[in-house]
């Protein structure tokens, strides 16, 4: 069960305060030369204000942090939370690389609203405590999610698909649709941007209103429905708690589901379901942790592109030149799902075009 309340998913997006908006931080001066007070002011804006007192006693200037290791963060700043250390390293890497990522504009408050949108509000407190922001979402690993108490395989897939939708939409904070459109037959490129609430509204529209509330906390959103080939009408029926003996109701759901995802995606789901060695997606499967040591982030700033496979949703952002379903995966994105490679080839050969729009420009 998840706890209701807190930040609403329908609230407007919150963008993080950047160094540009902080008068104490002079971007014309290299971070290594920032004063102790400038560093502490940045930590406050970055959501790590609880470490300011110890930081003030330790650092001489910005170079102290740039030269430090994760062990130093823990020893000198009292930074026990591994994701706080990762957040700090990602922030420091942004200063040294001088690369501006769109994901960095989304702060940890926005992430809690995003969790509402993708149907996983039960993790909001843990993500908030870890100060997970947009940049961290981009670089989440399986072990990070396990640290955040996300153990369900289905929930891992939900977050993975949701991150991919963010990638495709260049981390536009408004890319998920919180209300269904007027169209009677939405295209897959529209459904892929549906929030959990949109999926529940669709259930009501297809006369399954009685079961719609069961999707709260399920992690079901449009991206999961479209992008994960193992997610079928049977998976949805399980999550909705539709009894197996209600065969007519399940048949009605299967028909509506097929119409929603479209013929190409539906064929891919059938092909996968009929494949040798098919492992059905269950609602109870758990994810096992990868064995990593304390210094798993110690070389974060030196990662090579081929190491991006460690991330839960690795992607080649240079390959994403257009929004929509037709450019779901780049060559470096292999392994996102066991069968998405085949799906992308089918979609690309079929010439399925994206019809998404950027709400910022409208």
TrEMBL record:
Keywords linked to the UniProt accession: Coiled coil, Phosphoprotein, Repeat
Cellular component terms (Gene Ontology): cytosol; presynaptic active zone
UniProt domain SAM: residue ranges: 34-98, 111-169
Region (Disordered): 1-22
GO BP field: neuromuscular junction development
InterPro entries per record: LIPB1/2_SAM_1, LIPB1/2_SAM_2nd, LIPB1/2_SAM_3rd, Liprin, SAM, SAM/pointed_sf
UniProt function note: May regulate the disassembly of focal adhesions. Did not bind receptor-like tyrosine phosphatases type 2A.
Family, per entry: Belongs to the liprin family. Liprin-beta subfamily.
Name of the protein in question: PPFIA binding protein 2a
Organism: Cyprinodon variegatus
């Amino acid at each position: 069960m998840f706890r209701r309340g807190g930040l609403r998913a329908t609230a407007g997006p919150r963008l993080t305060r950047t160094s540009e908006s902080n008068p104490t931080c002079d971007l014309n001066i290299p971070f290594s030369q920032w004063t102790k007070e400038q560093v502490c002011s940045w930590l406050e804006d970055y959501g790590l204000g609880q470490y300011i007192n110890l930081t003030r006693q330790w650092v001489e200037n910005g170079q102290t942090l740039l030269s430090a290791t994760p062990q130093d963060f823990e020893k000198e700043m009292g930074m026990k939370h591994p994701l706080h250390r990762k957040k700090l390293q990602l922030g420091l890497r942004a200063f040294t690389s001088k690369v501006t990522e769109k994901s960095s504009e989304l702060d940890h408050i926005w992430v809690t609203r995003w969790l509402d949108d993708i149907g996983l509000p039960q993790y909001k407190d843990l993500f908030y405590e870890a100060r997970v922001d947009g940049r961290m979402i981009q670089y989440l690993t399986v072990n990070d999610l396990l640290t955040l108490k996300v153990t369900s395989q289905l929930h891992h897939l939900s977050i993975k698909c949701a991150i991919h939708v963010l990638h495709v939409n260049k981390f536009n904070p408004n890319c998920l649709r919180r209300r269904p459109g007027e169209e009677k037959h939405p295209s897959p490129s529209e459904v892929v941007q549906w929030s959990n609430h949109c999926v529940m509204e669709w259930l009501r529209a297809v006369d399954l209103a009685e079961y719609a509330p069961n999707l709260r906390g399920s992690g079901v959103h449009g991206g999961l429905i479209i992008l994960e080939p193992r997610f079928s009408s049977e998976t949805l029926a399980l999550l909705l708690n539709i009894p197996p003996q209600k065969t007519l109701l399940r048949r009605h759901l299967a028909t509506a589901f097929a119409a929603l995802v479209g013929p190409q995606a539906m064929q891919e789901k059938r092909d996968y379901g009929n494949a040798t060695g098919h492992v059905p997606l269950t609602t109870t499967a758990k994810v096992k942790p990868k064995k990593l040591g304390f210094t798993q982030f110690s070389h974060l700033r030196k990662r090579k592109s081929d190491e991006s496979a460690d991330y839960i949703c690795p992607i080649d952002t240079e390959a994403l030149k257009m929004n929509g379903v037709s450019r779901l995966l780049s060559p470096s994105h292999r392994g996102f799902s066991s069968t998405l490679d085949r799906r992308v080839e089918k979609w690309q050969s079929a010439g399925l075009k994206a019809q998404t729009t950027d709400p910022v420009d409208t």
